[in-house]
User: Which sequence fits this backbone?
């Protein structure tokens, strides 16, 4: 039964991956909501530039993002230096840095799907809520937010999947340190480089596929429930 | 119902190439805004609701100033206490009917009594729908819920933007009585946007005619519809004079009712109302024929002695003749007939109205008569 129990190495990688992805989502969700709102609802000078910056991680090689993070958030980097001096926070070569890398890479996916669902919300419903006495903040909480839940869910799942799979930016920014920054894909990469790592690599592949499938199935079930709540026919 | 005007509007609003310039003082009761599409009716009520903002001017409701460009006052829509029933209902799809109806509850300052909820639900006949989702409702049901939702926000004024426009004739007939009920039972003044004259005749106390962003006429439905100069706007084919009448007798053998107005009597197919009920009847101009001598041996039950007040030929073969039969009546006849009868202003004629021409659609239930001075 040795085959079905996880090794310490695997458990460590799984735990770290979930931890990194979890923290990445925690940062992505509120910021993504704000960015999606700004891009969907506001009109201002420089909007195209903001849109471009948000989507940059989708179009440049992940190594580029990793390098940019290293330059700016490393101990010598401007932002990294400031974070360390002001708050004692360091992102260099630890799991928090890995979470930041994952968050940056996942961010455009989150923003995109929330923005799409925001644009699909009928502004007339929000107007109706105003005439019924709801302030703009209340309209957001009681009308807009419930209506964009499916988009938020989709964005979260995409971002979660992207975070779990993040490789290039992570290895460039925080390297590949077992127990600290070695998430599932990095562990898998290490095994493929080792002379007799094939069996271990195969096991990690199965685990990765399992986690991804479980997340997709869970999100599907949740989406169906939300859509029923919204009265949509699926 | 009110001491001063309920709603005061003086505003100008530019929207692309379209310009709205309106000055209006409205009383209580149900006021219809009538005009073709694109005339500015919906823009005007959006401005009143605060969903759009006029360039210059003032809007006030009772004592409260809602908008004043000079004093930089612009009350947010949620603070105006104005209910709005949209053409497309706009029910919240994620809430069931009961939650839609009580949506405004948390925002209103006065405690909503359970009685009020029950009263509105009863008035609109929606008690069976409370647990349903908007997606499962018919168009007519949606509109009734939308009306209830707006009323339960305890508005000081209710705006209705063509609430029946998206419904078929059967659904319209289903909702009209509910709107009549609310006009007669609730004290809330209503502004009703429409481009269907039969709704206006049936529901409205007063009528505001809007064309190309301007108010063309404003007065009681009866006065406004008997003006021949407004015919191009009120519609030639569908329109006709509107009479305030009272049910005075029923003839059960022949299933007819007699209505009384201005010392005259009008016989129509039986109306199911007690004697003494107030009613409004539209007599379409095309259902009125004229003769110079009193018709004898005719099937027509209603013959009135009339005086010609005004003759307005149109571009086509017809002309409209405004008659005085104690009340205004309009006849639409051919120009040829007018010439052959030698019609002229002041001439005495007889106007015949077939009882059969007056159907349910031309009758409007009247609440207490509203004074238009």
Assistant:
């Amino acid at each position: 039964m040795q085959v079905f129990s996880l090794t310490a190495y695997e458990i460590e990688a799984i735990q770290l991956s979930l931890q990194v992805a979890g923290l990445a989502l925690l940062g992505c969700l509120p910021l993504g909501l704000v960015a999606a709102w700004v891009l969907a609802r506001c009109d201002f000078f420089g909007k195209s530039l903001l849109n471009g910056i948000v989507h940059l991680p989708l179009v440049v090689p992940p190594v580029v993002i990793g390098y940019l993070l290293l330059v700016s958030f490393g101990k010598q980097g401007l932002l990294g230096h400031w974070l360390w001096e002001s708050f004692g926070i360091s992102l260099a070569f630890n799991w928090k840095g890995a979470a930041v890398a994952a968050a940056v890479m996942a961010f455009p996916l989150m923003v995109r799907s929330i923005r799409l669902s925001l644009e699909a919300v009928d502004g007339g419903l929000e107007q109706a809520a105003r005439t019924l006495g709801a302030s703009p903040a209340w309209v957001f909480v009681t009308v807009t937010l419930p209506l964009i839940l499916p988009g938020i869910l989709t964005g979260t799942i995409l971002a979660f999947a992207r975070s779990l799979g993040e490789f290039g930016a992570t290895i460039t920014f925080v390297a590949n340190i077992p127990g600290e920054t070695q998430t599932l894909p990095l562990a898998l990469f290490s095994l493929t480089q080792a002379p007799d790592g094939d069996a271990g690599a195969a096991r990690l592949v199965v685990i990765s596929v399992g986690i991804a499938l479980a997340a997709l199935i869970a999100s599907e079930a949740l989406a169906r429930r939300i859509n029923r709540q919204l009265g949509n026919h699926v | 119902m009110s001491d001063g005007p309920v709603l005061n509007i003086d505003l100008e609003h530019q929207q692309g190439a379209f310009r709205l310039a309106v000055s209006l003082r409205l009383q209580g009761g149900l006021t219809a805004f009538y005009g073709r599409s694109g005339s500015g009716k919906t823009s005007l009520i959006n401005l009143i609701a605060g969903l759009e903002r006029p360039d210059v001017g003032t809007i006030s409701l009772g004592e409260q100033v809602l908008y004043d460009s000079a004093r930089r006052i612009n009350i947010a829509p949620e603070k105006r206490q104005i209910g709005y029933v949209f053409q497309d209902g706009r029910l919240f799809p994620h809430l069931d009917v009961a939650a839609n109806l009580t949506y405004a509850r948390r925002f209103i300052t006065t405690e909503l009594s359970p009685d009020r909820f029950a009263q509105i639900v009863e008035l609109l006949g929606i008690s069976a729908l409370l647990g349903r989702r908007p997606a499962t409702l018919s168009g007519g049901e949606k509109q009734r819920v939308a009306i209830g939702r707006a009323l339960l926000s305890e508005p000081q004024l209710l705006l209705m933007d063509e609430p029946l426009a998206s419904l078929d004739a059967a659904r319209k007939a289903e909702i009209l009585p509910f709107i009549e009920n609310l006009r007669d039972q609730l004290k809330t003044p209503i502004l009703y946007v429409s481009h269907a004259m039969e709704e206006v005749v049936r529901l409205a106390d007063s009528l505001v005619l809007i064309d190309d962003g301007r108010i063309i006429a404003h007065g009681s439905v009866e006065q406004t519809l008997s003006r021949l100069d407004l015919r191009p706007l009120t519609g030639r084919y569908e329109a006709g004079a509107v009479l305030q009448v009272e049910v005075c007798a029923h003839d059960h053998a022949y299933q007819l009712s007699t209505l009384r107005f201005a010392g005259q009597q009008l016989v129509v197919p039986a109306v199911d109302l007690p004697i003494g009920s107030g009613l409004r009847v539209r007599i379409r101009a095309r259902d009125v024929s004229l003769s110079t001598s009193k018709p004898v041996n005719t099937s027509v039950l209603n013959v009135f002695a009339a005086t010609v007040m005004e003759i307005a030929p149109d571009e086509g073969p017809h002309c409209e003749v405004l008659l005085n039969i104690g009340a205004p009546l309009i006849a639409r006849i051919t120009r040829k007939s007018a010439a052959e009868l030698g019609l002229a202003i002041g001439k005495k004629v007889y106007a015949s109205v077939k009882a059969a021409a007056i159907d349910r659609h031309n009758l409007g239930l009247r609440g207490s008569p509203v004074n238009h001075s």
Notes: The interface with chain A takes residues 49-51, 76-84, 86, 88, 90, 92-94, 103-104, 107-108, 133-136, 149-150, 153 of chain B (CB under 8 Å). Confidence is low (pLDDT under 50) at residues 368-373 of chain B.
